[in-house]
TrEMBL record:
The keyword Hydrolase applies. Belongs to the 2H phosphoesterase superfamily. ThpR family. A motif (HXTX 1) lies at residues 39-42. Hydrolyzes RNA 2',3'-cyclic phosphodiester to an RNA 2'-phosphomonoester. Residues 12-90 form the Phosphoesterase HXTX domain. It comes from Thalassomonas haliotis. InterPro entries: Cyclic_Pdiesterase, Phosphoesterase_HXTX, RNA_CPDase. The active site is at 39 (proton donor), 126 (proton acceptor). Pfam families: LigT_PEase. This is RNA 2',3'-cyclic phosphodiesterase.
Length: 181
């Protein structure tokens, strides 16, 4: 059975920008996340029944609609971090805007209402850059990557012969965009 999660979508242009930044500024001898798999998780869901999937798809419409009057500001990813246990290096935004917190909280609540367990901890907005990182380099570069967001999706994690691939099941537009500068 496949695993599912809600995540903010990154444009192809943003994904290429992140990969170039990663290769130029970090270039670690670890396993980089494939360009197509870069995303910003909002809520991890795990395995779903058909009924749960249907409820999540319907409920996500309501959550998306609750943001229709919110300004969807670009996200400024400005710090690197490390999860020791899964050995993951990530890029995070220190300042999480209200719209992003509201979206993540709304989707986590929806998951709970659907019978899915959600971790009881503060939301951490991040983009996983590398997996299987055994140790961090002595000095880390400063990060300042601005990412515009215009949609989120329910993603399915698919195992393939070439590795894991994330496929959008359904996407929702976040309509009131505010550009930086």
């Amino acid at each position: 059975m496949n695993r599912y999660f809600f995540a903010l979508n990154l444009s192809h242009k943003c994904k290429r920008q992140l990969v170039r930044w990663r290769e130029t500024e970090l270039a670690l001898p670890c396993r980089p996340v494939a360009e197509d798999n870069l995303h910003i998780t909002l809520a991890f869901l795990g395995q779903l029944t058909d009924e749960q999937k249907h409820q999540l798809l319907s409920g996500a419409e309501v959550v998306a609609a609750s943001l229709k009057n919110k300004a969807i500001t670009p996200l400024n990813f400005d710090r690197l971090g490390y999860f020791k246990r899964p050995k993951v290096m990530y890029l995070a935004n220190k300042q999480i805007p209200d719209w992003q917190n509201k979206l993540a909280a709304g989707l986590a609540k929806l998951a709970q209402q659907t019978g899915l367990t959600q971790e009881d901890r503060r939301y951490l907005s991040h983009i996983t850059l590398y997996r299987k990182v055994n140790a961090l380099p002595g000095t880390l570069p400063l990060a300042n990557v601005l990412i515009p967001i215009d949609s989120f999706s329910l993603f399915q994690s698919l195992s393939t012969e070439t590795g894991v691939r994330y496929q959008a099941v359904k996407s929702w537009r976040l309509t009131r965009l505010t550009r930086a500068g």
